[in-house]
Design brief:
By secondary structure, the chain is of the alpha+beta class. It has helices at about 5-15, 20-25, 60-70, 80-85, 100-110, 115-125, 130-140, 165-175, 180-185, 205, 245-260, 285-290, 300-325, 350-355; strands at about 35-40, 45-50, 75-80, 100, 190, 195-200, 210-220, 225-230, 235-245, 275-280, 280-285, 325-335, 340-345, 360, 365-370.
């Protein structure tokens, strides 16, 4: 069989077997570690570096919420301390002395990932965030998360804070067994008592029909992190990843991979992050922005634009120089006797002054006098 015939046969096979979907599944995963778990049985379907201990960022808040619902009633009031109010962003800017219900603060930490709300809840449960983190770590290890150590309730960077992709799947699986947390983490938006509407940072809820719930995270130290549940044909998977430069690009590959492993394949997913717009009832995908192609300049185009801008600047400088007069190279003697090369306007040299002196006109004889030497 000739080479051309073999190529045609391969192309036909790719068309029949859905080559596009298969190619998407085998694109490289950028995350340092990931784990895909069967949500019903806890069996690991696919993983890479699943037991590597890495910073978890705000996925810590899944454990914080789990501790809060186990320790408090949803109607309990939570006072806001000065330390809680001073938590760095992301936050909902709680004021010291205010009180909120546990119910409202759970929405605040799981949707917009409010660090001040997480700190306030931890102080209400254990008296201090440090004591809360120690108790939470002990509780999670009882669930099987043996390679996890949490030092904060928010997930802000701390040298002693780490978890693994496998442990995050395990923690999230237990959290989703609580109906209250399952409902909160699947909510797209929520209106706080002050009338402010907060949006879930989990973009997949808006762009992927198979998305059920999830929690995102990011710090400079951890890069992007994520843990969440996805479902198709009544089959559910939990996907976690740590240390990703682009979690949405990785999830776009991992979700179909996991659902295919469990026997519930889906078509290739569209980009998971897109423009959203706020409505009276919440947030939804902005179809107008989604339909409008994003103008992204390539590196070559940016370089050309920079070169054009530089050329324009040089042209302006040259134009300004032409107004001042021609420029010539001159040798400038330094105090030490050395000679330096410099650029001196020609009109400032003696020879140029001789050439550029205007002739004097004798008004009495109307004759032109020669220039003085």
């Amino acid at each position: 069989m000739g080479r051309r015939s073999l190529t045609v046969v391969c192309l036909c096979l790719l068309a029949v077997t859905g080559g596009t979907a298969e190619a998407q599944l085998y694109e490289p995963i950028q995350a340092q570690s990931y784990c895909i778990m069967d949500a019903d049985t806890g069996r690991v379907l696919s993983a890479q570096n699943q037991h590597t201990m890495l910073p978890p960022a705000s996925t810590v808040k899944v454990g914080t919420a789990l501790m809060a619902v186990d320790s408090l009633r949803l109607t309990d009031r939570v006072p806001v301390s000065y330390r809680a109010a001073e938590a760095p962003p992301s936050k909902i800017y709680l004021k010291p002395g205010q009180t909120y219900s546990v119910h409202d603060l759970l929405y605040a930490i799981m949707l917009p990932s409010a660090n001040d709300a997480a700190r306030a809840l931890s102080e209400r449960v254990s008296g201090s965030e440090e004591r809360f983190a120690a108790q939470m770590t002990s509780r999670l290890r009882q669930l099987g998360a043996y390679r996890t150590n949490f030092a904060t309730a928010s997930g802000l960077s701390d040298p002693g804070q780490y978890s693994t992709a496998y442990d995050l799947c395990l923690i999230f699986r237990h959290a989703m067994q609580n109906p209250t947390l399952a409902k909160i983490m699947s909510t797209k938006s929520y209106i706080l008592p002050n009338g402010r509407m907060v949006r879930n940072n989990n973009w997949s809820l808006f762009t992927a029909d198979c998305a059920v719930a999830g929690k995102t995270g990011y710090t400079r130290a951890s890069k992007h992190t994520f843990v969440g549940m996805f479902e198709n044909n009544n089959r559910r998977i939990i996907v976690s990843l740590l240390g990703s430069p682009d979690k949405w690009a990785d999830l776009r590959l991992l979700i179909p991979k996991g659902l295919d492993e469990i026997g519930a394949p889906i078509a290739p997913l569209p980009p998971l992050r897109t423009a959203l717009r706020q409505t009276e009832s919440g947030y939804e995908v902005d179809t107008r922005a989604a339909a409008r192609p994003r103008q992204v300049k390539s590196r070559t185009a940016r370089t050309s634009a920079t070169a054009r801008a530089g050329a324009g600047s040089r042209k302006q400088v040259q134009t300004a120089s032409s107004r001042r007069g021609p420029v010539m190279q001159a040798s400038i003697a330094s105090p030490g006797g050395a000679v330096k090369a410099g650029r001196t306007p020609a009109r400032h040299t003696p020879a140029a002054r001789k050439k550029t002196v205007k002739p004097r006109v004798n008004s009495s004889t109307s004759s032109i006098a020669r220039p003085r030497s």
